[in-house]
Design brief:
The protein has 14 helices and two strands. By secondary structure, the protein is mainly α. The chain has one domain: ABC transporter involved in vitamin B12 uptake, BtuC.
Length: about 350
């Protein structure tokens, strides 16, 4: 029988001490996890307060509406990319897919170059085209075992070339004024494109939380080998993730083209960097298995807020680029620091 220390009482019992250690370790783990979960939200709040104090115009309703409008396209793209990253892959074809889908969308609505006039149906066509490009990405990854960054980088080059070929130096101008008015307008004081982005985010959340596609994506990202041994159709869900990610690029391209009034090969310029940064800053791990669309949405808001705030406080455009680069470097370092041992083993 274990002896009891009269000064410590029952706490000196080795069994009780062991239980206390286990409970302490669990509490420490929970606290660490909570800190990681809430850190992006805290950063978002700190930035808002800081920029609002630096310049009162930052919190003005007009600027809030501008921020909401600017966040629409990145929010759609980040929602789609999240499923790919959660599975432990990456998609670098966003800008090329957006370029090709933008040109095709502009040529399918009333324009100055073709006789098509599909109206709002052209948005669905752009999404289907994007999903097709994404499915090819997925098939290359699961069928030929091409690393995702190589397969999607190749697709970026292909789709960019297709976009330039279709453009032929003459970007098609959209003449459908009803579509343009809709894209530039508000509903209940909120930009319509922001409403579409919010609905798309909600769809992503439902897929992530309540479908096999979403739940299995976390299993695949945690351990693809275990997922296969568990009977999960890993290849099918990987193709679905790439298709959904590129579908979001097709939707984003159509909406941005409608807002700008033309199809253009540069419609997605810098969107890939912004999207990947938002996903990482929001807390989705680049090696998969954790994070989610809400995390990515917070990341988008942080970057949108940061970009606008730096303008208000007078930061030069060159320094803004440097700051964004430093942020992605810090975010990736923070996200992978606790996983460095695992990464060394993988390497």
């Amino acid at each position: 029988m274990a002896k009891t220390n009269p000064k410590l009482g029952d706490a000196a019992d080795p069994l009780l001490l062991g239980r206390g250690s286990v409970h302490g370790a669990r509490l420490k783990s929970v606290l660490k996890r909570d800190v990681r979960e809430w850190a992006p939200v805290l950063a978002l709040a700190v930035l808002w307060v800081g920029f609002s104090l630096a310049d009162a115009r930052f919190a003005d309703p007009t600027n809030i509406r501008t921020l909401a409008s600017q966040a629409a396209v990145p929010l759609i793209l980040a929602t789609g990319l999240t499923f790919i990253v959660v599975q432990g892959s990456i998609d670098l074809s966003i800008e090329g897919v957006m370029a090709a889908c933008s040109l095709c969308f502009a040529l399918l609505v009333r324009n100055n170059r073709s006789g098509f006039d599909l109206g709002y149906a052209a948005i669905a066509a752009s999404m289907v085209l994007g999903a097709g490009f994404g499915a090819v990405n997925g098939l290359l990854v699961v069928g030929l075992r091409v690393p995702s960054f190589m397969a999607t980088l190749g697709m970026w080059s292909i789709t960019s070339g297709v976009a330039m070929l279709i453009s032929a130096g003459e970007p098609p101008q959209i003449k459908d004024m009803a579509l343009r008015t809709w894209a530039l307008g508000d509903s209940f004081g909120v930009p319509r494109l922001t409403i579409v982005a919010a609905v798309f985010l909600a769809v992503g959340y439902v897929l992530q939380t309540y479908t096999r596609f979403g739940r299995y994506s976390y299993v695949i990202g945690g351990s693809e080998e275990i997922a296969r041994l568990s009977g999960i159709a890993v290849d099918r869900f990987k193709v679905l993730a790439f298709a959904f990610g590129a579908l979001s690029a097709g939707l984003a391209a159509a909406l941005e083209s409608a807002r700008l009034g033309l199809g253009h090969v540069e419609i997605g310029a810098n969107q890939m960097f912004l999207t990947v940064t938002a996903v990482v800053i929001g807390g989705t791990s680049l090696i998969g298995g954790s994070g989610g669309v809400i995390h990515s949405a917070i990341g988008v808001l942080i970057l949108t807020e940061l970009s606008s705030g730096m303008i208000y406080v007078g930061v030069s455009p060159y320094m803004q680029t440097a700051v964004r680069g430093a942020i992605i470097l810090l975010a990736v370092t923070a996200a992978t620091w606790r996983l460095r041992k695992r990464l060394r083993v993988i390497k």
